Amino acid sequence: MTLALGIGVLVAGGVFLVLQRGLVRITFGFVLLGHAANLLFLAAGGTQRREPPIEGTAALGQMADPLPQAFVLTAIVITFGITIYLLVLAAAGKGDDDTERLP
Amino acid sequence: MVLVLVLGALVVSAAAAPLFERFLGRNAGWPLAVIFLVLGSAIAWPAPRVLANQPVAFTWPWLPSIDVAFALRLDGLSLLFALLILGVGALIMAYCTRYFGHGARHGTVYLLLTLFAASMLGLVLADDLVLLFVFWELTSVCSFFLIGNAGLAAAQPAKRALLVTAMGGLGLLGAVLLLAVAAGTTRLSVILREFDWAADPAFTTVVLLLLVFAAFTKSAQIPFHFWLPDAMAASTPVSAYLHAATMVKAGIYLLMRFSPEFAEGALWTALLVGTGLATAVVGALLALKQHDLKALLAYSTVSQLGFLTALVGIGTPEALGAAALHTLAHALFKATLFMLVGIIDREAGSRDVRRLDGLWRVMPVTATLTGLAAMSLAGIPPALGFVSKEKIYAAFVDFPGPEWLGWLLGAVAVFAAVLTFAYGFRLLHGAFGGTTVQRRLVEPSWPFRTPAAVAAVLGIVLGIAVSTLSLLVEQIILDTRFMSGDPHLELWPGFSAELAMSALTVVLGLLLFRARAPVDRWLQRRRLPFSGVSVFERCYSAVIRFGGWVGAPTRSLAPSVQMLPIVLVLLALAAVGLWWGVPLAPRAPGTTRIEDWLIVAVLAAAVAAIAATRFRIAAVCLLGVIGFVVAMWFLMLGAPDLALTQLLIEFLTVAVAVLALSRLPALFQPGGRLRTGASAAIALLAGAGATVVAFAFTGRRGPSAVRDYYLSESEEATGGTNVVNTILVDFRALDTLGEITVLAAVAIGVAAFVESTPLLRSALQRELLPRGSPIENAADNAVVIRVFGRLLVPVIIAFSLYLLLRGHNAPGGGFIAALVGGAGLAMVYIASLAPDRRSAAWPSVGLAGAGLAIAVAAGLIGLADGSFLRPFHGELELLGATVKGTTSLIFDVGVYLIVIGVIVSALRRMGSGLSGALAHGGEGVLDGLVIRRSKARPRAPEGGKAGHAERYRNGGGE
User: Following CA atoms B16, B21, B26, B32 in sequence, which dihedral angle do they give, to the nearest 10 degrees?
Assistant: First the structure.
């Protein structure tokens, strides 16, 4: 329930921001959507088991699903890559990042 | 084996053709002609076996998982076409050597012609449906390039020819897929003999229609005939080879190939006979009104293809025998006529009958050869065309239906043949008859004439010795009907109905020829209100317009316009899903814990704030807050690696965002009330939808099998205990390789982008601080971080290396280690007085490239054990201590370098230009954030932009 709510909050914020004019805001909205997608992955793995999946540290039955975590780990880094790319784009304009006012 | 060798030799020759051309110029056709002849003899070698009903076959597994094989098979039908392809090909290659001029380059044409020959040969030899389709398309593609190669004027015809034949190719693909699925095999000979076609009549009808569609487009039957005369824009050898002798017969070949199944069906007969005869008559009528000899021949080809289609439609063994014979006769006389028209065009400088006159006096040999070919075309004994026309008449008269229908069809055939006779003589008379105007013309050189002469004479010799073809035609009847039939091939079969029809044809043809002047006037007045080409062009541009209309919403440059449809479609899908309803399992207990609510509350507050704020710097801070909260949640959900990664990413994102922000106004653009309201409404709906969907589809099942596998097998299989990291670098290393490749692309993209668009130094100055404020001087303010940075950075780097090494067994690994190292670098960079000078030596793209190379190399080591990216791991006794090692550590080093490369790339590029002022006024990068040094001379903002900036600074009210 809490994860679903958290995802909803992030999606709402993300969608609001990507519909704005400035590329920086769009980028930030994209980051929020990335968070939401990552949390959705973890939710799909099941949040009733919450011990870190490191062998020998907890009972097997209590460990979280490692596969979504592996997906999310790379997804975080990829999101970062795209974020900085978008930020470079935003900064490359002539002192402005408005996407709807063409020079 | 001989089949695949011949095919391979053709492909090799195609590759060698440009080489020949480089050394021999236009004479490159000679070696190619010799190769064609040799290969033709090789194909003919097993002929005795083939004609004794023992086909030669070759099979080589191609896509064994779907049971598709590179299967070739040479039976009688394939033999006829193969000999035509290689035989006519040899003549055309020889002809090319004189048709082409000196000087220009012809390597491409030779290459394409040879490649086409290989494709066409593959098409008629293919015994696998998929293979057949591939070769079918290859011939279309070769045809496209060969037509288009003739210059700018040929571009549109080439496009039309390709689109029409490729459309038919889609039909063939449909038929191939249906058959493959229904029959469970793609082997053509098996399907033809063993598939139960009667089981599902509807299915059989669909396949039939698709095949007929494919054949009609390729063989230019009405209403698809227009592409063929259009394609005459190609050079004459191409027209003679592709668009008269071989490629356009591919459709006929396909129809004959599938005759065993369909020949007795009423739909097949009606479609083929109806369309074929209509094409024969219309083509002949159109040929009769042409003044351009090449256009005349093109319409003549359309008409003759109509005859062939109708014959296949009749479907009796005699009709199929006649079709085989006429295919041969037509290829011979039509290729001859094209070559001769090419000669006339080259020598006399025109192909227009109104401008050519009396050439027989100056070019008697060419005139004689044309006469021989025209005899075959018109069906005059002893030419081969006479025998085949007799057989055509016999097939129509013996139509397996009501007797009157047979006679009616026979009458239509006679009518078309009369027209054929008339345009054949029109050609002959138009070019060679009458008074000689161009008296100074001479015969072309003998190499130019010889190919045409061979084909013309062969057309007569084979007519006289037609009985030698009996075995071949008998075998083809057997191959196409699976029943034997006697073709009765004799030049003089005695008096019969068909002989009377032939005589009638000649008499009426002569009459029509005599009355050519009034007939011509009458024909020229008759014009269709539309032409095939114009209809095609109208459809074509309508499709393009439709595509433009469909794509219009996505053609905006504004990202929000691109995003909106995606969000709306997702919302609509969610709404449909809700309305539909899905049965859900009960929720698993314990998915929610009390501390989660705290996270949700903080998250909600931060998200609301980031949506509402107008200040960029506030948004960056809030983004960091959200990232930290999410990282915390990761930790609470049992994902320490994710939490670590997310935290580090937040540091770096903020670092890069700050650099970006220093170039931008302090405030966001004002959104406008409508936009803010609408996007808020959509955002709330989307959030609600995401909540419902996430709630409905997660937390309703137990642990997955793959989770249990990874958790229990990880240490055994990889030697590592940190399961998440073993998945990244061992189990699913290929995925990781793909992902780090994306990162390397980002590093390069940032570098390339920034280098191609010079980032301007921020023209905007911020007056947010009072003059004389203690934090005004960035350089002085950063002194603490600078000093500590110097001490800390080596520690940070060492720590990051430690994280890299321990990643297999504890939180850490390449991604996290690089992010820690990158954070250290960012600290140095931001605090440094002269970032440009320091970072100039950081080879970001080199780092990323080296990382990718190392990762791939680590994967290649795995090949030694039989699989890309399979890790080796083991223990090593070193100085008395046990050291565990794995090759996936090397892979992780690659990951590490790429991530460092991305970070360095971003920092360095974003900082470049900002530091220019340091040398003059001592401004640091931190300046860009909030502070302005008043003594630094700011570049004056330019007019309009200043106004724009002013608006933002003052709150941006509009």
Answer: -20
Count of other CB atoms within 10 angstroms of residue B434: 14
- Domain assignment present for residue A57? The answer is yes
pLDDT at residue B731 is higher than 80: yes
Give the strand pairing for B61-63 and B68-69. Answer: antiparallel
Task: Give the SS3 label for residue B792.
Answer: helix
Facing A1 at nearest CB: one of B695, B707, B708: B695
Chain B residues whose CB is inside 8 A of the A98 CB are: 669
Residues of chain B contacting A42 with CB distance shorter than 8 Å: 634, 637, 639, 642
Looking from the CA of B160 toward its CB, the CA atoms found within 13 Å total: 27
The three-state DSSP-derived secondary structure of A16-49 is HHHCCCEHHHHHHHHHHHHHHHHHHHHHHHCCCC
DSSP H helices, B465-531, are 470-481, 497-514, 516-525
pLDDT in tens, B144-181: 999 998 888 889 999 999 999 999 999 999 999 999 99
To the nearest whole Å, the CA of A77 is away from the closest chain B CA by: 7
Phi, psi torsion values for B57, nearest 5 degrees: -130, 155
| pLDDT of amino acid B125 | 95
Residues 6+ apart with CB under 8 A from B717: B726, B730, B731
Residue A15 and residue B569 in contact, taking contact as beta carbons nearer than 8 Å = no
**Left (φ > 0), alpha (ψ -120 to 50) or beta: where does B184 sit?**
left
**DSSP labels, B883-911:** EEEETHHHHHHHHHHHHHHHHHHHHHHHH
**How many domains in chain A?**
1
**CA-based nearest residue to B429, from B521, B347, B365, B354:** B354
Query: Is B93 a residue whose pLDDT tops 90?
Result: yes
**pLDDT digit string (tens) for B812-856?**
888 888 888 888 887 777 666 554 445 555 677 788 888 888 888
Residue B570: pLDDT above 50?
Answer: yes
Q: Which of A28-32, B260-264, B429-433, B459-463 has the highest mean pLDDT?
A: A28-32
Which of B901, B829, B900, B898 lies closest to B658, judged by CA? B829
8 Å CB contact between B418 and B512:
yes
H helices, E strands: number in chain B: 41, 6
Task: State the nearest Cα–Cα gap between B861 and chain A, in angstroms.
Answer: 23
Mean pLDDT is lowest, of A25-29, B218-222, B952-956, for B952-956
ipTM of the complex: 0.96
* Residue B765 DSSP SS3: coil
Quick one: tokens of B705? 């099998």
**Regarding predicted confidence, which is higher, B283 or B773?**
B283
Give the residue, B7 or B929, on which the prediction is more confident. Answer: B7
Tell me the chain B residues in contact with residue A30 when contact means C-beta distances shorter than 8 Å.
none
Q: Is the dihedral of CA B431, B433, B439, B440 positive or negative?
A: positive
Report the mean per-residue pLDDT for chain B. 84
Q: CA angle, A71 as apex, B695 and A79 as ends, to 5°?
A: 95
Instruction: Compute φ and ψ for B874, nearest 5 degrees.
Output: -175, 180
In a domain, A73, yes or no: yes
Domain membership of residue A41 (yes or no) is yes
End-to-end Cα separation, chain B, in angstroms: 81
Query: Does the residue A61 lie in any domain?
Result: yes
Radius of gyration of chain A (CA): 18
Give the structural domain span for A76.
9-92
- CA-wise closest residue to A103 among B674, B917, B760: B760
Read off the tokens for B555. Answer: 């053609």
Least confident of B457-461, B583-587, B762-766: B762-766
CA distance B934 to chain A (A): 19
Three-class DSSP category at B308: helix
CB-nearest partner of B682 from A19, A52, A66: A19
Q: Which of B747, B716, B668 is nearest to B955 (CA)?
A: B668
